[in-house]
Specification:
alpha/beta, 15 helices, single chain, globular, 6-stranded parallel β-sheet, Rossmann fold, Histone, subunit A
């Protein structure tokens, strides 16, 4: 769904709340309570929750939570599919429009910052699906920055010479489409957005990550992996992602469960640091910072304080809208 279609369908600006932050920070709990209090629909912004069957290791909301509050963008793709950012943007914007039509507050919630940027129109999304074999070949090329400069000087000027991943993507887009990456422009979406990011101290976040890993294993994460392997085989690409890869090493006898537990916590912490670095570059984000762990009620109070103008404006808009 295009921006113009959204604007025609839903008015000038669609009210939207974004709750971002690193894994295990408490985004889902906060968003769930906000949705309960303000009549919201949660729209997942998690690159693995879109896949059916990957439940425990991606911390999907429970069936009870999904029955209580509408959730979108969960279990919408088969694990064998390649789910692209362009597809996510289209699907998520359609979900936002559905929530708005139903009179509910759309809450985009998750830690995949690029998904959030794509939905908000902060970054261009070329309609070129990733090609792992092509990407591998391009990343191995020498003088990658100079090669990009030769075909797309504007993109080369914005990319660090050592950022081989994005440089290879620029060449991939050019090879696949014949168009330069810089030809694709960001298209701001018609949302009145309140963008919240949960920030925890280093020590607290590490504690929460350790606790979450233990909880996932207690819930039967290894059993989930066995079910996935039975259905799709051990070579499924998603089984090489964070958490699943370490437990697959247990399954093959290369790690003990205790070793895998430690590695998952360590690798998740590294991933959380990268997420935090990403969100720090979001200029419109409002950071929710609190000393100590805090209670959910305290986090809700802090979030609603940040959302006070947004909530008041939305309330006035709703009360002034005549009943059909």
């Amino acid at each position: 769904m295009s921006t113009s279609e959204l604007a025609r369908e839903d008015g000038d600006l669609v009210p939207l709340v974004v709750v971002g932050g690193p894994t295990a920070a408490g985004k889902s709990q906060l968003a769930l309570e906000l949705a309960r209090r303000h009549g919201g629909t949660i729209i997942s912004a998690d690159s693995r929750q879109v896949y059916r069957g990957f439940d425990i290791g991606t911390a999907k909301p429970t069936r009870a939570e999904r029955a209580e509050v509408p959730h979108e963008m969960i279990d919408i793709a088969e694990p064998t599919e390649t789910y692209t950012v362009a597809r996510y943007r289209s699907d998520a914007r359609a979900a936002i429009a559905r929530a708005h039509r139903a009179g509910r507050v759309p809450l985009v919630v998750g830690g995949t910052g690029f998904y959030i940027r794509a939905v908000l129109g902060y970054t261009p999304v070329p309609p070129v699906p990733p090609d792992p074999e092509r990407r591998k070949r391009l990343e191995a090329l020498p003088d990658l920055h100079e090669r990009v400069r030769a075909v797309d000087p504007e993109a080369a000027s914005r990319l660090h010479p050592h950022d081989r991943f994005r440089l290879a993507r620029a060449l991939e887009v050019f090879e696949a489409s014949g168009r330069r990456l810089s030809d694709f422009k960001a298209e701001p979406a018609p949302y009145r957005t309140a963008y919240l990011v949960i920030a925890l101290s280093r020590d607290l976040l590490k504690q929460r990550i350790d606790r979450r890993v233990d909880e996932m294993l207690d819930l039967g994460w290894m059993g989930e992996i066995e079910r996935i392997v039975t259905e799709f085989g051990p070579d499924l690409g998603l089984l090489q992602t964070l958490g699943y890869a370490e437990l697959m090493a247990v399954r093959s006898g290369n790690l003990t469960l205790d070793q895998a537990r430690g590695l998952i916590a360590q690798n998740t912490w590294r991933y959380a640091r990268r997420q935090l670095a990403w969100f720090r570059h979001e200029p419109s984000a409002r950071w929710l910072e609190m000393d100590g762990d805090g209670t959910l009620e305290a986090w809700i109070e802090l979030a609603e304080r940040e959302l006070s103008d947004w909530i008041a404006t939305r309330g006035a808009t709703r009360s002034s809208t005549p009943s059909p």
